[in-house]
Structure prediction request, 103 residues.
Amino acid sequence: MPIADITIIPVGTESPSVSSYVAKIHHVLKKHEDRVKYQLTPMNTLIEGELPVLFEIIQELHEVPFEKGAKRVATNIRIDDRRDKVSTMEGKLKAVQAKIDAE
Prediction:
């Protein structure tokens, strides 16, 4: 299953803090939790789901800073789409952990 790593950066805000934007983005993700899995990290957000759904939700997330008054938004997207086998966020972490444990 495709996994997207997204970072949404509002440009020209009144404060260097972006936590209010991140919180709003996660409210949007919460309403889609029946369609995707997501995980907040200190630097980005990971979303797992069908590719067309990911693109739809990413577009909605990109709009969040504009809705909060930002005049410019930079969104970075990286997609891991493995098609030779089923891949999930949990599965990827378990594979690495197994290798760490084996050392």
The first helix runs from residue 19 to 30. The beta strands are 3-11, 37-40, 45-48, 72-80. The mean pLDDT is 94.
